[in-house]
Each structure stands twice: as C-alpha cells, then as structure tokens.
Amino acid sequence: MKITLVKKILADGSPCQKCADVLARLQSSGQMDRIDAVLVADERDPQSPGMLLAERLQVSRAPFFLVTTETGAETVYTVYFKFAREVLNTSISQSQQAAEILNDNPDLDYI
Question: How many CB atoms lie within 10 A of CB 57?
C-alpha cells in the first residue's frame, strides 16, 4: 500500500490552514512515517504535482489522501478522521469526527 498526502498552497502563497492542522496531527501521533509521499497542490501553478493529481482524481478539497493498493486500486480520502480510522487504524472519537464535518461544511449549523 502506498499513501500519498496532498497539501495545498493558496493563491496568495500562504499554506492551507487545514493542511497544516492535519500535518501536525500526523506528526504528533507519529503517523507521518506511514505517509509515502507528500505532494503540493499550489493554486498559483496548475502544473504542480498536487494540482495535476487533484485534477486527475477530480478532488476539489485539500488536504486529501490517495491510498494505492498493490493491485493498483486507488481510494481517495478527503476527511482526515475517516482516513485515520480506516487506513491507519486509529481510534477517533465521535466528537472529533463531528467537529471536522462541521469545519469542512460551514453551511451546516449546530442543532
């Protein structure tokens, strides 16, 4: 299995805050060593490796993870906690999952 992380650089040259948060989580949990490649999707450069991969996979969110199996099957994860649970076998609380869903979907509101 090969795991590729794609992080984004915004059009103004600043790093994507969510990407930085995910990288910090991976590093603090010691899981960064499970990531085989990190690509940058630079909004200022449509030919950057991460932008090309995002286009090929039709992914519009960052960060995202591409998991490629030995048979070549590809699975894309755009939600860190789902990736951590399903691929890295990390225990994730429901409140962490809910917080990420709300953060990723500002159109949703608390009930």
Answer: 13
